[in-house]
């Protein structure tokens, strides 16, 4: 797998990982009656996006490493 393929796998893996971790630990404003006027009461109080982006990056690195090992094995010519 070349650099272009690895980049594509990393980007796709990052977005998949990000959407997987996005709902983890989110609490809405309605859960403790701290709704800010002018906002939706279902909006998250603390979305923790930086922390989730870090976890998505770790997940994408793992996915890319796994693909870098598996893809060459699948593409190897059989005698």
TrEMBL record:
It comes from the Bacteria. Keywords: Membrane, Transmembrane, Transmembrane helix. The keyword Transmembrane applies. It holds the Pfam family DUF1467. The chain crosses the membrane at residues 7-26, 53-76. InterPro entries: DUF1467 (IPR009935). This is DUF1467 domain-containing protein. It comes from Hyphomonas hirschiana VP5.
């Amino acid at each position: 797998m070349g650099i272009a393929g690895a980049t594509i796998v990393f980007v796709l893996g990052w977005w998949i990982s990000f959407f997987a971790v996005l709902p983890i630990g989110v609490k809405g404003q309605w859960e403790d009656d701290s709704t800010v006027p002018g906002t939706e009461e279902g909006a998250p109080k603390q979305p923790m996006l930086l922390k989730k982006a870090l976890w998505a990056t770790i997940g994408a690195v793992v996915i890319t490493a796994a693909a870098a090992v598996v893809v060459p094995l699948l593409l190897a010519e059989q005698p």
